[in-house]
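Give me the fold.
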Amino acid sequence: MLRFCVLLLLLTACKADQPTVLSGVVIKVLDGDSLIIRDAANQEHALRLAFIDAPEYSQAFGSESRRSLDRWAYQKTAVATVIDTDKYQRSVVLLQIVGKDINAEQVKAGLAWHYQHFAKGKQSTTQFALYQAAESEARAAQRGLWQEATPTPPWDYRRAHPR
């Protein structure tokens, strides 16, 4: 009996280390960093893309950011690795569509910031460097929001425009 309990405890601990993965079809894109998928069991999941922050819809490049995510994701099958849950009870995820890191693609396009404040300590060193390089490349090429001399980060915009 003791062996069984120890084995059960070990199996539970091993399973807890594995990330939750959701998959389904994207049924709605809300903005440049959030969307809804429907899984095979017909359950809907609200998702927030991890490690990035896109302009608010009412902010410069907000609609372009949303359209970009829509082109990448709408009505496509997505695989989402859950990193966290946010204060709105959305799963914070790394989103993959056809093997592409969609979070990084939004940054590369200049339509989202690498959200370093959130990423530090949660994002792998390699992935952190990749997202930083994507943002630097978008800045240098003046893509998307980097066309502006001093674009306002969404976290500053939200502070100045509370709901």
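The chain has one domain: 16-160.
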